[in-house]
Prior knowledge:
By secondary structure, the protein is an alpha+beta fold. It is about 35% helix and about 20% strand. The two termini are about 65 Å apart.
Amino acid sequence: MAEEKELRYDPAAIEAKWQERWAANPKLYAAEPASSSKPKYYVLEMLPYPSGQLHMGHVRNYSIGDALARHMWMRGYNVLHPMGWDAFGLPAENAALKNNTPPREWTLRNIAAMKRQMLRLGLGYDWATEVTTCLPGYYRWNQWFFLRMYEKGLVYRKKSKVNWCPECATVLANEQVVDGCCWRHEDTKVEQRDLEQWFLRITAYAQELLDGLEKLDGWPEKVRTMQRNWIGRSEGTEVDFFLAENVDEGLGTRDEGREVQGGLGIRGQRSERQRIRVFTTRVDTIFGATSVQLAPEHPVTEAFCAADAELKAKVDELIEQQTRAREAGDVGAIEKHGVPAGRFAINPYNGERVPIWVANYVLMEYGTGAIMSVPGHDQRDFEFAKKYGIEIRRVIAAAGPEAVEQELPFTSEDGVLVNSGEYDGLTCAAAQKKLQEVAAAGGFGEAKVTYRLKDWGVSRQRYWGTPIPMIHCERDGLVPVPDEQLPVVLPEQIEITQQGGSPLARVPEFVNTTCPKCGGPARRETDTMDTFIDSSWYFYRYTGAQNARAPFDSAKARYWFPIDQYIGGVEHAILHLIYSRFWTKVMRDLGLIENGEPARRLFTQGMVIKDGAKMSKSKGNVVSPDDMVARYGADATRMYALFAAPPDRDLDWQEDGVAGVSRFLGRVYRLVMKYAPIARRVRGENVALPVLHSGPQNILEDAESKLQRKLHQTIAKITQDFEGRWHFNTCVASIMELVNSIQSADASIASGGVNPAVIVELMRTLVLLLAPFAPYLAAELWEELGEQGDILRAPWPVSDPELAKEEELEVPVQINGKLVTVVRVAAAAAAEAMETAALSDEKVRSRAAGKRVVKVIVVAGKLVNLVVK
RNA sequence: GCGAAAGUGGCGGAAUUGGCAGACGCACCAGACUUAGGAUCUGGCGGGGAAACCCAUGGGGGUUCGAGUCCCCCCUUUCGCACCA
Length: 869
């Protein structure tokens, strides 16, 4: 190296070169077959919707996943790291309206653009397994699954009140309604409409979905809690209150009531005594029930209204108030209103006659839509009773010897029954059990577990989705499309308009078909499936994306599943992640897989924000990944996304920070290039590493052992982080520290104070450590160091604890807990040696002079604290 | 209202178990090299003070030889849930 010519780090050139090389070698990122002798590792990032542009949230998500995947490759794992496209959905139809581009064309073009961006970022995906959900090769399996579920009774159709987004002009699942508004249109209120809809019986798995959460200890507690709340299990009792007098209208017992979402039809045979079934978690308080409250939409309410125009007017008013309040958004703060129905119900336990009211705080969609009101022991009933002068009765007394009369409402379950006839004196828990038995024996009630989770409404009146494979025949009714006729292909030549209703209904070639059973003329179902179906199982398809005979190969799925690490945004905590768990359980019950949960570990990364707000077009604070890559390169952009904050926290995007990372990469480049010639020479000569001198006699350290120590500490730190803590921000910082150390030692290196073999070791390892974070630069420098083969297959460095160990420590010395000085001692120094060193320190002596040392606290290897008086 | 997470320099953030608060980076200041620099290198950089020192992790108490970290009360922000009977 006679003269060093100015070397400039040119990410554009380096990255272009390697992108080309990698493209020519698709095997590089491909998983090996299940017969591989390596342990498997499935790392998955949530697949994007192909909007046409990656945003920074994607860049962050994929930078985390790619770093992990690369690390695992280097650790010798057989890694599956796939990517795909959640390609059905409304934006494609909106774009079609706006630009007159067919949805398919628009979508495929967007996919191509985003794939280019991903390749430019250097993300290591196995593109041979790419999944695109809007292609018939994929969505035919949605249809296939739908038919299998239909056979198992997990699919049903019913007319119900549904959530309707006027903006989307389609139905939404409960999970897609946020604060009474559409999840995609935050300002659009969701309306209620009556429609025939297809449902998946996710409630059949409610208990299992809940129980499974206990074992998912690799998932964030936050997500598990959200799912628990969403499933909303509650144990209680259903009890029938009899109507004091029969009503002429067609009232009856409710049998399948719970299955029905929203308003329900009045059905079932007329019973001899008409009854109102209530759900309660506190049946022990039933002697305190002083009224029965019905939801305004309850069928009994409707029956009353049919016979009482005045009541109907009042109930309609209630419903309207309720709707207005919902629209205002503050559901919890709505004042309780009600109207007396002018009728009475009979408490089955004591024959007491209590008035029936219609109340706005009783929800038709939960429980039975009717409650017994116990104002003495329920906060809400109490407020209501106060307002309307309904009797408030104490039936529970606080437990304990000096049982002070608790003020009502007393809502604790820690008490005993009073004023409850023969049940007086029982504890709440005992009374609940006893009363349930009595109800069951008497045929007027039973123990009941209720869930908040509702069945999944999957019908959408949209075009760009999977056609539901069902046929309506006048003679045979509902007929499933036979498997051999799959896929039911989405017609492509179709005019997208803004008219309501299913666009497919306006395509006669699609609608008109023949009945598979009788051969007669029939009509196809024109609803399409919710796109969350697409994303419920896509990660299984990655194990064999070309499979034309089955959704996936069960043997392969057995090998790869469960996913070892799933990474995505927390916004999918309930929607996607609960549907996926449901789908996995269904597939297991179909015998396709053995795992009961899709992913062992889940990681939810934080949002990318800028200037204190989430990046969004409306706020005008969007930073384009393309711009960043063009200015600073993919390596710097990705590394900044990891460096700026720990991955689970929100990240504040600051472009100056990207520039800083880019400068750092430049320093690495120049540093390694400077020593690359030595490395190439040493490789040829096979120079042995020197043995590190150790022992207490070597308190004076030389540059060489210092550097080696720093190196091995860095290896240990980063390796540990990949194994769990995932603080990649501090991993990057530690690499920076290592580089700083090497640069500070530059003079000693130049003067020959460092063995060339150590220099090579430093350079090689530095580049290896960098590889998961800055893959382009690492690949380039690996080659410059004269190494053969791809760095992705080079073994991850191993930290030698002996080399990482400090020989000498700086020990802080405190007096009364305040820092006074720092003394240097051998790392192995015993407590006495530390104490001696501290006490003999001049500063310590002068500070302690004239005072009495009461106590000396010595923490081996940590610190010395003198307590003086 | 209920639940969870968080609050540390001008900024993003460090500080695995209680043990030198501010790693690393940005911004800023000074210097070097330069025709120039949005390049590179060197040094400085929580506040107060001439210094010795003192004060500092949202606020107030407490435990401890020692608290950013543990306990109690309060404030603020973010997220989730919100009449679930």
